[in-house]
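Attaching the record inline, Q. Sequence:
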Amino acid sequence: MSLRVYNTLTRSLEEFRPLTEGRVGMYVCGPTVYDHAHIGHAKSYISFDVIVRYLRYLGYRVRYVQNITDVGHLLETGEDRILVGAARERVEPMELVEKYMRSYFEDMDALNVVRPNISPRASGHIPEQIELVIRLLERGYAYEVNGSVYFEVSKFKDYGKLSGRRVEDQEPGARVEVNPEKRHPADFALWKRAEPGHIMRWRSPWGWGYPGWHTECSAMAMKYLGETLDIHGGGMENIFPHHECEKAQSEAATGKPFVRYWLHNNMVLVNGTKMSKSLGNYTTIKQALERYRPEQIRLFILMSHYRSELDFSEEAIVAAGQGLNRLHGAYRKLLQRSRHAAEKPMSDSLRAMGEEAKRRFLQAMDDDFGTPQAVAVLFDLSREVHSYLDGVDAPSMEAISYLLGLYEELAGQILGILPFSRSESRELAPFIDLIVEVRAELRRNRQFELADRIRRRLGELGVSLRDTPEGTEWEMA
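Structure, as predicted:
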């Protein structure tokens, strides 16, 4: 089965075919860096990380662009989120941006999220945004009022096609105060006039101002990926107005389809309510990493489909940790038994079991990146691996190598939930064996306090020991 993805624009599953064979241009709306990222952000960026990983696994050359919003993302009050954050912490806006941009990438690195090929900042692409606004004015889709420029949605017949919202259904003053400068309440700002004292502002043909939130994504996406993108991703909460406006202004400017496949991830809930900073019901990624392993957080997120809601609870993430222990346990057991494996061929039945597991895993991923079903396949594989290893005294080296390769390919390369590689384990194994031998000698000499200190320190370093009548076994956490 070929890869099929759910396209928000057509509201259907479609076979994935990029514009250029073998290449994929993918843009995902990145964070507005005014505070620490939370678990809701983790769901979004881990979900798209796996999508990028799988596309690359299939052989596509992916250019992944994820922006950094450091200007122009306005609250419903009309205030810029960056300026609000800067006032909160009494720092310069760009000082705030640097702090939380670094925090965001630290979190993503900890969660094993592969960095985008390009992470453009909105404030670094003001000329491109001004050029886009000029183009829309020239083509008759925008108008200028008192130094601000607005997109006139009535001029774009397909406005509302992505979100399913009709312009005529949008009541004046329903969400925000009516702006008398607009010709219609649904018109949106491409460029905003900067009032006196507004810190973040740039010179433009319409006077001093700053870009609208939607303008940045269109300008940067088309700069790095061309006028038609293969994939545009983001949270479902961005479908309207952000992505609807992006689509309208981009297609009005170029006369071409902006995006072939719109992919949207669903939100994280806490007690049935969306996790968000505005509601104060969020857990930051840093707080979560203090309590849970990075791979545990990844697995917790991947055990739900990217388009499904995810309930964040202690019980659910603990259950994910237990599942992770089963997966890692099978992988570690293979690594340990590889030190005493025999040079004999792998059985046909074991190879068939592995091939069937891989077939089911890839089938799940080909069905709109079905990670819950793919994870279930790994659980089944782990059970089979434990059964095989428990049933032989000296496993086949060929079998061990084959099964390790399966884990590294499926759980590691695609899902990113293996904490260490086979080579890392093999490099460390002789040193850990030596420490375990020294500890055993201390125990024989009844130097239990020092032996316990070694055990505790190894535990802190991620190596757990289990004393048995036959000796001490160890495994990496």
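The radius of gyration is 26 Å. Residues 327 and 382 are 6 Å apart (CA to CA).

More tomorrow.
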